From TrEMBL:
PANTHER family: PEPTIDE N-GLYCANASE PNGASE -RELATED, SECRETED PROTEIN. Residues 752-777 are annotated as: Disordered. Residues 236-746 form the Glycosyl hydrolase family domain. This is Alpha-1,2-mannosidase. SUPFAM superfamilies: Six-hairpin glycosidases.
Length: 777
């Protein structure tokens, strides 16, 4: 099925249209799925340490500083943009118009104000550019090893290197500035070749900059540039280039990238995406369907923007082991190299190896939506990514927090690699060093000495305090306690799912008790989550990047107990309605909340879809006995806070976490509990979806109406493989071998799933393999 045409790579490149104040921070450059290289444009952006344009590109800019080989997918802080390439030599930047710019999966093109056209494409570890100089443009190209997204003005030339050899190849080393809590300037090596002869006049290498003048006397004004990169050496950058991009066939590489993207996008096939099916829709539905398909397939595309390959074709990569702890950012101490071949592991009693070391882990974000999707449909890559986390931990001493290159950074609080690994394992990605992960998780949960280099496993508070008090005391973040209880639950779930569970029973029991520690900061008098000092005194709560109303529902593993503590289901529904700006009584018949009301921002007491802690909240209605309310609000969120415009994401994409939320919401499923093998159910937004699972089996999702197109958001009944299905929780085991979910939908609210006997499972240690809580005799 041709699907790449539905991808709009410019979605999420501008500040959200609905008021969160944050940009998606995506880059429209050329990348292959999970590729090391993202070859794209770099514009001025905010030039702040975070802000808009953190992914290197900001749509409102009218100039391009340079093009570079690496970009982060939707980060909140600046990073990457390594190997700055400027196909002009007479200005720091050139202007452009969006009318002269286009992008598709694996390809980017722009015509600059001097009429020079730059086209970019990529393989996993290399980039290929075709530069067609305008008739009046000087055919010069600059490679500036000093500049990157974190060093827009350039590093001192003595810190980088660049050389031009007698064959016309340019190679060198550039440095990435510390990313968002990191301390290490890490190297990126490059090796570049051209298909066009260089002129002696105008060509020079000086102070970290290579200026290259091309001989275009033959009449062809196009120059092709191939670049390989590596974290290890120039030799490995060259090896990557020779292995993946040995020729100058730009159109061939572009076509390969497009085919690879189309294959991956076909992992989830929506019937109406077929050209003939789209053409057959009534006119009033066709434009809306095109919009919704564009949002969906762009979101699915972004879920493959990270983690990203970090090792070279020979398995080599830069170690995370930090030789000097607490080093200042001005220093560039070497770190050793490593190789995937040095880290064998055991799977089902047999020695196994992995092929690729991955980087680019934004785990505070991705554990809530992205990891489960990737493990479900891409278990091979996800297993290698989990093995990568175990290897990083073996090098630095504990699981890292947020991985950029081979650096552990700490932009967020908590300890989230266990959430990611547990989620991946329970959703089917199991070909990694599970015993190593088990040992590391036990240590991070119980040892106050657990640290990756100089960064304690639990960030944003003291594990010793948490073990002693059951909460993180003020003045540290109140929300760190909530992150900790989620991680406790994930580690317990992971340990309980292993064959060694009996040996870990004491630890599992202790962690399940700790997973209820939200109760230590729940004030029954105010019915709110509050801060608490070490002596037990209540204080105002502090919540990282959000507020108490949005963090209130962030620990789905204990929603039933939370709802009971709050006063029962009716009271919980009232609180949820207020959060979503819904009227009391019958909110489904009242006015819809605006996009701004559903994306209030970090200081808002209204719903904030633009940040991850709120992602699962709509499905809390299922536990509160009102699944119809989740079915009502979800399509409104999807319609009013996501669009096909540049500002069409509600906040940072965060390595595909936000996009992953949209994919799940479209399917009508969501992994609300990171380490539970199942999903909360809501309404599929399309009639006819096929999800190809990682084991090759197909899950077919069918509805009798197009929910989004026909405004029929409510579920009347569900069948699984032809048998009536009760409850709004779907255990993964029920669809492990594929199958068919069939829905009958309605345009008016229904009571489907609201019977108390159909309440989904809840609580640390609950049996999530069952669709409902067992009814007591």
């Amino acid at each position: 099925m041709p699907l790449t045409g539905y991808v709009n790579a410019f979605i999420g490149t501008r500040i959200s249209e609905t008021g969160s104040g944050h940009s998606g921070n995506n880059n429209p450059g050329a990348q292959t799925p999970f590729g090391m290289v993202s070859f794209g444009p770099d514009t001025p952006g905010s030039r702040s340490g975070w802000g808009y344009g953190s992914g290197g590109y900001y749509y409102d800019d009218t100039a391009i500083d340079f093009f570079s080989m690496t970009h982060l997918n939707g980060p909140g802080c600046r990073g990457q943009s390594m190997v700055a390439i400027r196909p002009w030599g007479d200005a720091d930047r050139l202007t452009f118009k969006h009318a002269d710019e286009s992008a598709s999966p694996g390809y980017y093109r722009v015509a600059m104000s001097n009429q020079t056209a730059i086209e970019l494409t990529a393989t996993t570890r290399t980039g290929l550019a075709r530069i067609t100089y305008g008739a009046g443009a000087t055919p010069v190209l600059v490679i500036d090893a000093r500049k990157s997204n974190t060093n827009k003005s350039g590093l001192p030339a003595a810190m980088v290197s660049i050389a031009l050899d007698k064959t016309g190849a340019v190679s060198g080393k550039t440095l990435e500035g510390p990313f968002c809590g990191g301390t290490w300037r890490q190297p990126v090596y490059f090796y570049a070749r051209f298909d066009t002869k260089l002129l002696d006049a105008g060509t020079s290498v000086k102070d970290g900059v290579a200026t290259l003048a091309f001989d275009l006397s033959g009449g062809d004004r196009s120059v092709r540039l191939r670049v390989g990169i590596s974290s290890v050496s120039v030799e490995n950058a060259k090896l990557n280039l020779e292995a993946e991009n040995a020729g100058y066939g730009f159109d061939d590489v572009k076509a390969y990238a497009g085919r690879e993207w189309n294959r991956r996008l076909n992992t989830i096939q929506i019937d109406v995406a077929r050209p003939e099916a789209l053409a057959a829709l009534p006119d009033d539905q066709k434009a809306l369907a095109l919009t919704d398909l564009t949002k969906f397939y762009t979101a699915l595309y972004r879920t493959m923007g990270g983690p990203t390959a970090y090792s070279d074709v020979n398995g080599a990569f830069r170690s995370m082991a930090q030789k000097k702890l607490n080093q200042p950012t001005s220093e560039v101490p070497d770190r050793a190299t490593a190789n995937t071949a040095r880290y064998p592991f055991t799977v089902d009693g047999k020695t196994a190896r992995y092929g690729t070391q991955y980087s680019g882990f934004s785990m505070w974000d991705t554990y809530r939506s992205l990891t489960q999707l990737q493990a479900w449909v891409f278990p091979r890559e996800t297993s290698e990514a989990m093995q990568s986390l175990v290897v990083w931990a073996r090098q630095c001493g504990a699981f890292p927090h947020w991985v950029d290159g081979s650096e552990d950074t700490t932009p967020m609080n908590g300890d989230h690699a266990p959430n990611v690994i547990a989620a991946a394992y329970l959703f089917g990605a199991r070909a990694f060093d599970i015993e190593g992960a088990r040992s590391l998780m036990r240590r991070s949960a119980f040892s106050t000495a657990s640290a990756c280099n100089d960064k304690a496993s639990l960030m944003g508070g003291s594990l010793a305090d948490y073990l002693r008090l059951g909460y993180i005391p003020a003045p540290d973040w109140t929300s760190t306690t909530l992150e900790a209880v989620t991680t406790d639950n994930s580690i317990a779930a992971f340990l309980a799912a292993l064959p060694t569970a009996a040996a870990d029973k004491a630890e599992i029991d202790a962690l399940r008790l700790r997973a209820q520690n939200w109760k230590t900061i729940y004030d029954p008098t105010t019915r709110t989550l509050r801060g608490k000092t070490a002596d037990g005194s209540w204080t105002t709560g502090t919540f990282h990047e959000s507020t108490e109303p949005n963090y209130f529902w962030s620990f789905a593993q204990d929603w039933t107990a939370l709802i009971a503590a709050y006063g029962g289901k009716s009271a919980a529904i009232t609180r949820l309605n207020a959060l979503f700006s819904l009227t009391t009584g019958q909110p489904e018949t009242g006015p819809e909340p605006s996009g701004q009301a559903l994306n209030g921002g970090e200081s808002s007491s209204r719903y904030y879809i633009g940040n991850e802690m709120s992602f699962g909240t709509p499905w809390a209605y299922n536990w509160a006995g009102s699944p119809k309310s989740a079915q009502y609000i979800l399509p409104i969120i999807m319609r009013k806070t996501f669009s096909t415009n540049a500002g069409g994401l509600p906040g940072n994409d965060d390595f595909g976490a936000t996009s992953g939320w949209y994919v799940w919401a479209t399917l009508g499923l969501y992994p609300v509990i990171p380490a539970a093998p199942g999903m909360a159910m809501s309404t599929p937004q399309f009639s006819g979806i096929t999800v190809w699972l990682g084991n090759g089996k197909a899950l077919r999702i069918e509805t009798d109406r197009q929910a989004m197109l026909e405004k029929a958001p409510y579920i009347t009944s569900v069948k699984l493989n032809g048998t009536a299905y009760g409850g709004s929780w779907l255990p993964l085991a029920k669809v492990a071998d594929g199958g068919t979910l069939s829905y009958v939908l309605s345009g008016t609210p229904t009571d489907w799933g609201s019977d108390p006997a159909l309440t989904p499972p809840s609580g640390p240690g609950a049996d999530y393999s069952q669709p409902t809580v067992p009814v007591a005799p």
